[in-house]
């Protein structure tokens, strides 16, 4: 909110668009519903429904990760200390915020080869609980600006079903479904197609801007 307010208050800025991907894609939906001065918003493979993502997770990952997350939350709440971590992404059955061979391999494509053995693939375990009751897609019905929503049809991280339902409620929503997985939006042919579509959306709603 502060970043958008700063941009909107600048004399050299005429229009501001919000852009977000995955968890950030859900944040953009909530932001666009609150901030009526936005010229538009773009949300790709957005996390829109915490329960849907939780139910779509690997059962063993949930069984192993949930006790760690709960214990970490209790320790932090009562004593201000962090005890346990979860992997950001792991193999099927590993305690992680995202698990399975497809998200694992897709995520690692984004990590530079020189960093794959050293990058910090973890978050504090309590973070895994916060997303379960997070439903940013519900804000779509209150978005008054144009919003472009890019959905990955085969998304195993942010299930496409709820996102389609929520995006359809945006009064000025523009939705495109791609034959893709969650991390296909970041590299390769799908990335190129998506960027082209987003540029066209921006041209449509800011035709005189460079």
Question: Helices and strands in order, then pairings?
Answer:
Blueprint: H1 2-8, E1 17-21, H2 23-34, E2 40-44, H3 50-55, H4 59-79, E3 85-90, E4 96-99, H5 101-108, E5 123-124, H6 127-130, E6 147-152, H7 160-167, E7 173-178, H8 188-205
Can you offer a commentary on this structure?
The chain has a four-stranded parallel β-sheet, sandwiched between helices. Strands 4-3-5 form a three-stranded mixed β-sheet. It contains eight helices and seven strands; from the N terminus they run αβαβααββαβαβαβα. The mean pLDDT is 94. With 210 residues, the protein is α/β, with parallel strands linked by helices. The protein has helices at residues 2-8, 23-34, 50-55, 59-79, 101-108, 127-130, 160-167, 188-205; strands at residues 17-21, 40-44, 85-90, 96-99, 123-124, 147-152, 173-178. Helix content is 40%, strand content 16%.
What is the compact description of this entry?
This protein is α/β, with parallel strands linked by helices and 210 residues long. The chain has helices at residues 2-8, 23-34, 50-55, 59-79, 101-108, 127-130, 160-167, 188-205; strands spanning 17-21, 40-44, 85-90, 96-99, 123-124, 147-152, 173-178. It has eight helices and seven strands; from the N terminus they run αβαβααββαβαβαβα.
- Low-confidence regions: none
Biggest sheet details:
4 strands, parallel
H and E order: HEHEHHEEHEHEHEH
Helical stretch tally? 8
Cross-sheet strand order for the largest sheet: 1-2-6-7
Beta-strand fraction estimate: 15-25%
Radius of gyration from CA coordinates: 18 Å
**What is the overall shape?**
globular
Helix content: 40-55%
Q: Note the gap between the termini.
A: 24 Å
The number of strands is 7
On the 0-100 scale, what is the average pLDDT? 94
Main structural class: alpha/beta
